[in-house]
Design brief:
11 helices, mainly alpha, 368 residues
Length: 368
């Protein structure tokens, strides 16, 4: 018995993906079924919508000067993470079902790493947003005073950490040297890594929930203290509305990802006894839908974002129908009286607006 155990704890990198699936008892489809075609067809359609919707959010934030603040740049980076998730799910759809048998271990690890990177980037972005909102609102500000360089550095760090976390299972924390530690959901992953991964994300959720609860209590108290007809009251209400939007984004993320993280945690703790594979596809569908929810929240909650979306879509329609139509960003920017915007007509009648009073290292103040 000891000899058999030592055999399975010896690193043998010659095993293929099918071996690990058979070892944990996870079935791989042999032939394509109608259900497989329907799932992949619907999945790719949703992924396409996810990519386009989050690309629209990123373009809106970059084009509308009222969104040129740290909080919106972080939300734009969250949209980039959701866009990346859409691409990751496309890769998953194109390497699932009977295709799984044809994957090399490197391709399988890449498939999982893309999902892990997108999740880590989303969680890290939401944590950064929570910290930014806590620091800003407690100091009675609408927007953070972080410079552009610091925001860019923060975004770079978020993606660096996400990539490292996504590569950990393929580099060393897997079960190729300990087959008894193999996960049933992700057969090449270590169950101990899944426990670490799930607990880390769940703890992050609770930390963010605690921070937002404190912020809401503080803002509610400050709002009640303000005069009902003062500028301070309008400022507090603006802060509260922005906090509600961000909280809806956080709430949707937790609701969509919580089932999957719980399944990973149970799989890591109980192994085959957890029957995690029964709920795996259901949890993946919910997690995929989360990447589509944020653009919907922005559309319903933020009038400025909604107006920017309409302008961008109208631009695309008009450009396709009549390239001679002159477009201007002045309508969506709604500039303050002291601001002057100049529109320069470019080739193919495409309007590009440049703000004459722009400062390279400062944030443009919005009308509150």
């Amino acid at each position: 018995m000891a000899t058999e155990s030592s055999v399975w704890t010896t690193c043998d990198y010659s095993h293929n993906v099918t071996f690990f699936y058979n070892w944990v008892g996870k079935k791989i489809s042999v032939v394509w079924t109608t259900q497989d075609f329907v799932v992949i067809g619907l999945g790719l359609t949703v992924c396409l919508i996810v990519v386009l919707a989050n690309l629209l959010v990123m373009v809106a934030i970059s084009m509308n000067h009222r969104f040129h603040f740290p909080i919106y740049y972080l939300l734009g980076n969250l949209a980039a993470a959701d866009l990346f998730a859409g691409i990751a799910y496309v890769n998953l759809m194109l390497h699932t079902g009977p295709w799984t048998r044809t994957l090399s271990k490197e391709q399988w690890y890449i498939r999982g790493a893309l999902i892990d990177i997108s999740l880590t980037a989303s969680v890290a972005n939401l944590l950064a947003v929570a910290v930014e909102r806590h620091q800003t609102i407690i100091t009675v500000q609408l927007h953070s005073k972080m410079t552009k360089r610091r925001v860019v550095l923060l975004i770079v760090c978020i993606w660096a950490v996400s990539i490292v976390m996504g590569l950990i299972p393929s580099l060393f924390w897997n079960c190729e040297c300990d087959l008894d530690d193999c996960s049933t959901v992700a057969p090449l992953y270590s169950r101990r890594f899944l426990v670490f991964w799930a607990v880390l994300n769940l703890l992050t959720f609770f930390v963010m929930a605690a921070m937002y609860t404190r912020i809401f209590v503080y803002v509610r108290y400050q709002t009640r203290q303000a005069s009902q007809h003062s500028t301070e009251m309008r400022h507090k209400q603006t802060v509260l509305n922005l906090m509600k939007t961000i909280s809806m984004v956080l709430g949707a993320f937790v609701i969509c990802w919580m089932p999957g993280l719980v399944i990973l945690l149970l799989d890591g703790l109980l192994g085959k006894a957890s029957h995690a594979n029964t709920f795996e596809k259901f949890c993946l569908v919910i997690a995929e839908c989360n990447s589509l929810i944020n653009p919907i929240i922005y559309t319903l909650r933020d009038a400025e974002m909604r107006r920017t979306f309409k302008w961008i879509l109208c631009c695309l329609c008009r450009r396709g129908a009549d390239r001679q139509t002159k477009l201007s960003l002045v309508e969506i920017n709604s500039p303050l009286p002291e601001e002057t915007l100049g529109c320069i007509q470019k080739l193919e009648d495409q309007a590009v607006c440049t703000e004459t009073n722009h400062k390279e290292d400062s944030w443009t103040m919005p009308g509150v």
